[in-house]
Design a protein that fits this description.
This protein has 131 residues and is mainly alpha-helical. It has one domain (8-128). Helix content is 66%, strand content 0%. The chain contains five helices and no strands. The protein is elongated. The N and C termini lie far apart (36 Å).
Amino acid sequence: MFNVWPELFTYEIFAVALLRLSVAVFFLIHGTRTLSLWGIGPFFDRFGSWGLWAARLATTLQFAIGVLLLVGAWTQVAALFGMLVCLKLAAARRFPTIAPHAKATYYLVAVICLALMFLGGGAFAVDFIKL
């Protein structure tokens, strides 16, 4: 097989780290948006106290996924939950205040999370440290 720069394959572990960090930033930004309830408040107010509970749960889950992926701890578990959250957000597309991005964005992040489940955390991850 012909590759233009085959020596770049020695740095493949950094490519996985870039994927992990980009998904972590996505979840941290999305969790911040849910935390501040930018335009989400009226939606959750319809459900009373259950709506506030659901908003707090969603925020906590998104922040936990983002922090775990940022640090690289429990990468496969965080990627699994990240994939499930993204698929749920893609299904909730009819509520633009909850899922503000395009449906394709959530599917793309879900596929990256699926890849992280098989590839691991990459470089600079706590999972990568060999004892």
